[in-house]
Amino acid sequence: xxxxxxxxxxxxxxxxxxxxxxxxxxxxxxxxxxxxxTFHFPWDPKSSSQPQQVHISLxxxxxxxxxxxxxxxxxxxxxxxxxxxxxxSAIAQGESTKYSYLLYSSGKIHHTVIGxxxxxxxxxxxxxxxxxxxxxxxxxxxxxxxxxxxxDLGQTGWTKSTLDHIDQCKxxxxxxxxxxxxxxxxxxxxxxxxxxxxPLASSRPWMVTQGNHEKESIPFLEDxxxxxxxxxxMPFEESGSTSNLYYSFDVAGVxxxxxxxxxxxxxxxxxxxxxxxDLLKVDRKxxxxxxxxxxxPWYNSNRAHQGEGDDMMTSMEPLLYAAGVDIVFTGHVxxxxxxxxxxxxxxxxxxxxxxxxxxGGNREGLAHRxxxxxPEWSVFREASFGHGELKMVNSxxxxxxxxRNEDDEPVQSDQVWITSLIGxxxxxxxxxxxxxxxxxx
Length: 441
Fold this sequence. Notes:
Oligomer: single chain
Number of helices: 7
Radius of gyration: 24 Å
Number of strands: 24
């Protein structure tokens, strides 16, 4: 019996040692909770003219576009607004649209541009002459300015957790690099998504671009992006674009370009021509930061969606490099990854920092499998749901942080100071060399 106890004691010590070693090796690893179910909305009957799915977006200098939906086709597309609760000193008249998709017919979708507005100011507004009253805050016109960033949102319990965490962030504009509602042909999911994001999207501008889940094309029956374009109108006309799938805008000292991964992008395409023209107009003295968003990543060491962005990268990366783009945000891969400054497949001090952030909370789950060993350009990667915050402190320094959704609490898991390419000797001055490179491309 004593031999048995001695053997068990030795085995216990060995097991303890193994656990201690494992704890030392894996202490930094996060045990990810399981996926959560699709978020379900209780039935909430509203009067037919009451505004629903309210969201706002930037619409040119000192202007915002207010979008909402009503089931009453006669409801007016007006927005009353002012800087005091219940006191509206201005009124704007907008436009409306609606669409049909197979057996579905949308409500009346209103788009009304308000302004000119004061920067960094809280406004109170109501839509269509109906309650309730909403309030929004305009972005600042100077540094510092903060962006919340999260892609591939969907409508699950994790989406709700991500949105709750973003709501705790003191941000000015939300950037979303594609895959919003995950409606996937079921049009009522666009309505529930609008309801889910309304508390945030009605109070801060949401700037979005399309992903593959927005495409919804059916050969011979339905064109792609009809739902997305009808509901999420972005300032493409204000930026000289002919398509809602790619556009640009300025916030404080940042020029942001939203590109389309699912519309032609080769050198003969309208998008390519527009991008060249837009980059040539950038004044880095006025907007020293240059940021680009699109859906499919070019630099991705996850095994999911490998190579899908290669063609777009071949066409457009030389343009972004020539213009001195600082940061590129993408989605599509349901995980997080940050690179060094990179160009043409390897680290380059004049390239962009690429950040994949397709981890907002979608129903398809996380992409856990990564290439091993990681490429030399990959700095941090993790398969967890979360969101990012980008604070442009001044013309030369920005602080980026990624916050994992850990046990329903936002935990800052990656952070880095990013120095802009201004003054780096790279192509950021708008000089003759950059213009020659862009025009020759």
